[in-house]
Sequence to fold (1047 residues):
Amino acid sequence: MNTIPAPTIEYGTLAPLLVVFGAAIIGVLVEAFAPRYLRKAIHVPLTLLSLFGAFALVLVQVLRGQVATTASAMGAVAVDGPSLFIWGVILVLSFVCVLLINDEGHFVASAAAVPGSADEEEAEAEGGGGHTEVYPLVLFAVGGMLLFPAAHDLLMMFVALEVMSLPLYLLCGLARRRRLLSQEASMKYFLLGAFSSAFFLYGTAMIYGYAGTVSLPGINEALAKGSGLDPLLMLGLALLGVGLLFKIGAAPFHAWKPDVYQGAPTPITALMASGTLVAAVGAVLRVFWVGLGNLDWNWRPIIWGVAALTMIVGSILAITQTDIKRMLAYSSIAHAGFLLVGVMATFGTAAQNAVSLKAILFYLAVYSITTVGAFAVVTLVRDPGGEAGHLSRWAGLGKRSPMLAGVFAFFLLAFAGIPLTSGFFGKYAVFAAALNSGTQPGDSMGGWMAGLVVVGVVASAIAAFFYVRVIVLMFFSEPAADGPAIAVPSTGTVAVIAVSLLVTVGVGLYPESLLGVANDAAHSLFIR
Amino acid sequence: MSPWLPILMAVPVVGAIVVALLPKGSDKLAKQVTLAVSLLVLVLTGVMAAGFKPSGERFQFTAAYDWIPSFGVKFGVGVDGVALVLIALSVVLVPIVVLASWHDADGVKTADGTLITPKRSVKTYFSLLLVLETMMIGVFAATDIFLFYVFFEAMLIPMYFMIGSYGGAQRSYAAVKFLLYSLFGGLLMLVAVIGLYVVAGSKTFMFPELVGAIQDPTTQKWLFGGFFIAFAIKAPLWPVHTWLPDAAAQAPAGAAVLLVGVLDKVGTFGMLRFCLELFPDAAKAFTMPIVVLAVISIIYGAIVAIGQTDMKRLIAYTSISHFGFIVLGVFAMSATAQSGAALYMVNHGFATGALFLAAGFLIARRGSPFIGDYGGVQKVAPLLAGFFLVAGLAGLSLPGLSSFVSEFMVMIGTYSSAAHGSGALTVAAVIAALAVILAAVYILWMIQRAMNGPTAEPVKLFKDLNAREVWVLAPLIALIIGFGFFPKPLLDVINPSVHQTLTNVQVPTSTIAEKGTGQ
Fold:
């Protein structure tokens, strides 16, 4: 009788993941057994500590110089330099997002109650504090985000995708105010997300049919030997691409973003706009660079079109928005386009590709931290009925609360990529990488890369218009008589805004240290 | 490594932080601190400039520190003659603007009690002004092209807030238009900057090392295009000039002086240094189209200026005409014309600055920018009218005033330039000369309508210039007259660096003629 060999699991390498998932499971048990009045008091330290602990474990791996050079867990998870960088970024982001989530009044007391019904009033009256399930759900989502960009085979990646997405679908529907909008967002996100997951899974199956394996390096090997024009491969590539591009919100798969960002509770929006984007871009990089690296003749022209379309669509549609969260959603779409420009910059020597990878990692870090800061400011500008979403309500904010408006204006300038903010260097790094990769001899896309960068700067100029428009509203318009109130920020929210501001200013003045970290993470590229 | 330029750049920004952190209600102190800081910068610049050796190295007072080694970016500064005189122009104008804007944010009322500008934050205005001063010095001093780009773009932001928060009724429209135009040009330049870095492959942005790095003519043309469009928008050249009249008319007078007097010079300065020296073949290939655009700007700006009813818009259009002259001088490819163009940049700053400020004082008394609302001012306020007249005459380049020297040099240099052989430049110079007549029309007609004739009813209440206002205008008028008769100190500094430019562009030295100061 054959014995089944026990799999080797590198517990040390995978420790950050295990800590987050372990804490999530403990969180579920707390929900089941702890009395209601104790739950929050247990959840908050548990969640924050586990995120902090996971971050510390990432740091330990980096500082001891023990970055793995082969895939862990029987080739299922690759904890390489880029993974660790992305993990670090996601853990920091989720930590600050949990500080935002902690604030009173973002979450509904009883999600199951019909909006406007007596049940709801009753739940509001007695519980008040909102669902405490939020904490373990966030931890599961964060665990999924960590696993998604590190997954070394397509099946593991699909599992991570689901672990990340399912809690987020739920969390989107928990906004305390504007319940219907929130539930609609949740429903839309769930349906569209389920479709995209199905696409991803179907694509995986097709590629398995072609390559006989789901492991990313295995697929790449099969590509090196086999024909690049197999229908199974083509279909698989297309379906897989749809699934991944949906998650980063690239046009034409971007339609969910504005609705979901608007409807979801703002701290959750912040988590999605930062953490999910970082994780999804990481996964896109791994699939296209590692798994389909030998197929770049086929996918680069397609990504070219998608990137150009995403930048243009995101920038132009943002102009017509009247809701601040929707505007930031379109801005996030445009930024996804800029990131895709970087994803294309992979036709060169290993050293050149490392420069491109460094640029993308740097961009992800600076963009996502600024995004969290911007959404944190959004949570503070409130009407009696909740957050003041409509842009006209922001008129004259600079007169009423110059500090807050000034900080928000600074974040907007960073999004627009004005020099002396972190956003400028992010954009510069990605564009420089794209132009640099276009100079490779034998790259038929060379001139096209320059063209894409020009599309990128035109889109940036268009995008600058709507960022500037908000500044005009805040500073150059007279305040409305019954304007929104500025909530007194909690310590957590102040900390979040201060950290984002410090990073945005600091990296804007002296980007070298963060670039150095990104460089160390990127120089060995992905494990293959 | 000389610490001069980093110190010059640090002083205003430290001052800005101090002003911003002053406690509430210390508006007067904020103004005094700003004035003191800007005077300190002026003195420091004077001491530094005294040590400049025109016959020495091209770039002096150089310093370079590693800033972003990953991108090959250095904090590299240094000045040649042209950069030095432009920095001098900036630091002279800033204290004058501070003094001129003394009450701009206080909420200005006219003699008959109508509110011109509401009360706004004084501290913010003056700290923005100081931040802008740092960036103006930085943009001219940068020898690292990346650093130049950073200042080129970043200086839009303080100006944007100065126009948008402290300007006239249409201020937010004007501010946004200004920002978007400049940003768009700047982004195209960013692509060209990256392209320059990638194609040159020398892993540096330092300007002296990049001269001659791009040899391929096609690449030169593309990169030249990226730089030139950005500078043409900034300068501004017809047909991308439309933002300037709006921005200048809506900006408070002090900000308008810095906008037209200094910020726009970055465009012509950039053409002279970067477009010509980095891409000499492309510059020569594009000379004729650019000369045509410049001539159109000269004539178009002058004609449209005649038709303006708003004083500040009129001055803005005259500037478009003058910028046409500067661009013409830059691309005429002769030493006389280029020296004239560089000198023109300085003189235009003083002349237009004086005109904007005098117009600003006039507008502050009446609350209306329209020429038709005035009349007979000289009977009531002879000092104001007198300064206005001299500033106006400098604007039309009357001999004996500084702008005459530079305009004459540009025209002579263009007329006799052999750079394009065919005599096309001669034709351009002849057409441009027509603008001298048009200039007399727009200036003198404005002065006639506003200053002479019967005194309009509200004008009778006007007070003449007070001591502060005299202190604002007198130094400018003194400089205009002084450099009109004795431009040699400026030319001595400018000429060597213009020669260097022409050598790098590889114009045959026989056309690098000397003299022609017009005196």
